[in-house]
Amino acid sequence: LAIQERLADHATAATTLISTGNIRYLQGDYAGAIRDHSNSRDLYLAISDTDGHARALEGLARTFSAQGDYGAALSALAGVLAEGLARSDRSRQATALENIGDVHLRLGNLDAARSHYEQSRDHFLAVKSMSGAGRVWQGIGMAELIANRFAEAEHAYTTSGVICGGVGDREGA
User: Fold this and answer.
1) Residues whose CB is less than 8 angstroms from the CB of residue 16 and which lie 6 or more positions away in sequence, other chains included
2) At 110, is the pLDDT very low, low, confident or very high (cuts 50, 70, 90)?
3) Beta carbons within 8 Å of 63's beta carbon, 6+ residues apart
4) What is the b/e burial string over 102-141, where b = at least 16 CB atoms within 10 angstroms of the residue's CB?
5) Per-residue model confidence (pLDDT) at position 172
6) Integer Cα distance of 80 and 67 in angstroms
7) Cα(70)–Cα(57) distance, rounded to whole angstroms?
8) Are 117 and 98 in contact (CB under 8 A)?
9) How many CB atoms lie within 10 A of CB 6?
């Protein structure tokens, strides 16, 4: 990173900062992860790299969520979703919507969680990511279970198992 900064290689430095931010996150150094992801985001903005910017926001969202700062996580994920919409990138939209659903699930906003999971599922299906769709069905199942809608939860988990099993995703199944 020091060499990349001295060479003013902003694109490579931004990528390195995402990596160091991810490592800091895994080590539980959330302040360091936020710093690295924020610096990465700023560099990507400076060079107008919207894809990199979205990846930095994903790292920020993950770290904010781990700290329980769900408002900041939702804000970062809104940026990821906006980038996916701007680029008509349905895979990025699917992942962003799934992550937004996860945050709403943690907040106890079960209807919002389910709505985001359903939108995510539809995007995963559109890009033929059956494993992604199957895993989102698990989120739907969890939202239904917490809401005491047991028949709906059973249906969601069964659907997830069938989809994931059908594409060889043993962990998902």
Assistant:
1) 1, 4
2) very high
3) 21, 25, 30, 33, 34, 37
4) bbbbeeebbebbbbbbbbbbebbbeeebbbbbbbbbbbbb
5) 87
6) 19
7) 14
8) yes
9) 9
CA-to-CA distance for 69 and 49, rounded, in angstroms?
A: 26
Tokens in use for 77? Answer: 């994920």
**Model pLDDT, residue 173:** 87
Q: What is the pTM of this model?
A: 0.92
Residue percentage of the chain with pLDDT more than 90: 95
Three-state secondary structure along the chain?
A: CHHHHHCCCHHHHHHHHHHHHHHHHHCCCHHHHHHHHHHHHHHHHHCCCHHHHHHHHHHHHHHHHHHCCHHHHHHHHHHHHHHHHHCCCHHHHHHHHHHHHHHHHHHCCHHHHHHHHHHHHHHHHHCCCHHHHHHHHHHHHHHHHHCCCHHHHHHHHHHHHHHHHHCCCCCCC
| Dihedral angle, C-alpha 112, 118, 119, 120, nearest 10 ° | 110
> Cβ of 161: how many Cβ atoms within 10 Å?
17
Q: Angle 168-159-161 (CA atoms, 0-180°, nearest 5)?
A: 35
Token pair of 95, please? 């992942």
